Amino acid sequence: MVEDRITDGRRIAELLSSELDGREDGGLAAVAVTNADRDVEPTADGARAYDITRSDERLARVFVHDDRAHLEFEIEQDTAAETASDIDLRVRPKATTPPRTLVFVESGADVKRATDVVQAVSGQLESTDA
């Protein structure tokens, strides 16, 4: 039996978008995919495909590469980094002002785990809103 592993960055980003739009559990009910570039073409450095927002606040941007996608978290970077690391997604800080956290989604199988990172960040915001 041959297993197909999805490693096309654009397709991974599409799967992530569908997962985020389709789930209403946990902190994902308030999460939306916004500002989508439907004609995005993958690049070596990553091309912005869409934003992930919660109550009109951008949580992250999603970028597509030829062979993966990555999320660039703008808020709750520590939560994103810790959650991603705990569930075995590759993560690294981005030394910008303000700092960002990059979480890499390298296959279609990683999409559910990437959704868990978004859920953790959204949940952290929900708890600070209360």
TrEMBL record:
Q: Which residues form the DUF7993 domain?
A: 1-127
InterPro entries xrefs: DUF7993
Q: Which Pfam families match?
A: DUF7993 (PF25956)
Q: So which domain of life are we looking at?
A: Archaea
The name this protein goes by in its record: DUF7993 domain-containing protein
Which organism is this entry from?
Haloarchaeobius amylolyticus
